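Take a record.
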Amino acid sequence: MPVRSVSVVELRHRAVLAVVRLGQRVEDVAVHFEVHPDTVRRWVRRFMAEGLDGLVDRSRVPHRSPGRIDAQLEDRICRMRQEHPHWGARRIRAELARAGVSAPAKSTIERALRRNGLLFGRPRKRQPVPRRFVASAPNALWQIDAWECALADGTTVDVIDIVDDHARVLLAAQAVPSVTSEAVWAVFSAASAQWGLPQRVLSDNATYLTGRAKGAVAEFERRLWRLGIATSNGGPYHPQTQGKIERFHRTARAWLDRHGPPETIEHLQTLLDELAVHYNYDRPHQGLNDQIPIDVYHATEPAAPLAEPPCRTTTRQVLANGTVSYSRWRVNLGSEWIGLDVDVIEQADKIRIVYAAELITTFSAEEPKGYIRSGQLRSRRPGRR
């Protein structure tokens, strides 16, 4: 004869009867049925109040869900995602707040999107928030860089960007056939005419931006220094130093993917101009706690260039013919200085060559590149008679 399986309700009923009718201890009944004593007490309470119905499994759904949003708001969130597939939960939350809606938490929006099949994959683990440098005021630091862009026919052109470090405002985004020192200066001049002069400019080590790697000064730097603007450079192979403008390049490429591809360089410039308006005046920036860049820019007084022009010092050895080479100049110092290490100091359009505390010669940075005769010797080589 087959053994009849016992239902869950019947087992619970037996446990209750053992306590209520047979007077057994709750702890002993719990051991026999392999449950916690509190579970047995709960079964007893429910049986006394509802009979056998109280021993049936109950839904574990909570009576109230504080994190669950109302249906109308959830529908609005879903429509925003459908209309803008590239918007994440954080962007949706920022747009709701801008519209005057009491926006739920980012995690709540993510759950709503997952319930409606609009967000896939596992939730990302919360990462520690890195500490980032931010300039103290608008125009205190500009980041400048260039990147390559492909047109629809496969032709490649360059885009020169300038971003304000403090407010993340896109100060310039100019398409050019190829990036050169003159092209960079033209873009910088247009940006400074609109936004004012910065206090410092940060760039990578591209030769059209800096001569630092060669112990010299690039023409772009020289022009900045004349205006009292300091310059900084990131380390080689370390783009994180220019992280803000590198991140903007990703945003720009995503924009062109959605609105492109650009047919011509003129079409590309039109798309970049539209991006600048959207990026500065309409798009909440996550790096600014979802504020609009132009609002952050105007919230603080802009910084101004430095009072004293910057300078750069490098060391050169005087060659066997009595000359020293620097940035395509070859300066004749004389045989008295052969073999010595001298300092070449460039500041405010003036280049000085110094040994210890002694000035050997000086000449203007406006001098044509090539051979320069230093004139009469200032002194004899130390140690010689």
